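Hypothesis: this fold can be encoded by more than one sequence.
Test: take the structure tokens below, design a sequence, compare later.
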């Protein structure tokens, strides 16, 4: 199955100011998420940000919010966005959810497992998730894959959203996201 930009939403889970320094490669994680959010926004994929207890963990990184200024931001106390019942109807009405964020083995994992239980096709962007440790990140990814989520990369998301080369849109996206050193 391919990602269908007309039936998918990008859900960015808890990439928050105070939590970022605790995860593996925080600056790389932020750069990769910014690349993904910006590319999603540019190809017309809706974006939703979740925030886990923002009063304590701060808000979504400003660089991400700037990359998708019209995106919805939802708050939660449950680790899972589904359990928190904070996801907008616009996301729930679509059949596919592309997920990135942190932490892989907690909020991302619980959200993905519950999205799968709702019958959603879930794509986890493996190069745009992180945890405080490699073992937790790796086993979180493994568990999501074993449960039926599809592991993808940022470039897979972009190419599947574009579907064809040779268009003005493809040339513009290629120059912006595929040329030169990428995060």
């Amino acid at each position: 199955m391919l990602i269908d930009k007309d039936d998918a939403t990008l859900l960015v889970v808890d990439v928050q100011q105070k939590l970022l320094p605790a995860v593996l490669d925080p600056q790389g994680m932020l750069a990769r998420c910014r690349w993904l959010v910006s590319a999603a926004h540019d190809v017309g994929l809706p974006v939703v940000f979740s925030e886990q207890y923002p009063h304590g963990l701060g808000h979504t990184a400003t660089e991400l919010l700037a990359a998708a200024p019209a995106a919805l931001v939802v708050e939660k106390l449950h680790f899972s966005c589904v359990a928190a019942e904070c996801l907008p109807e616009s996301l729930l009405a679509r059949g596919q959810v592309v997920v990135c964020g942190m932490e892989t083995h907690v909020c991302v994992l619980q959200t993905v497992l519950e999205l799968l239980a709702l019958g959603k096709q879930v794509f986890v962007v493996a190069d745009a998730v992180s945890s405080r440790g490699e073992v937790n990140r790796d086993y979180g990814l493994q568990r999501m894959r074993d449960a039926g989520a599809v592991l993808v990369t940022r470039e897979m998301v972009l190419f599947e959203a574009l579907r064809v080369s040779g268009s003005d849109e493809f040339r513009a996206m290629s120059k912006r996201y595929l040329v030169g050193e990428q995060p």
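Residues 8-177 form a domain with the Rossmann fold fold (CATH 3.40.50.850). The mean pLDDT is 97.
Hypothesis status: open.
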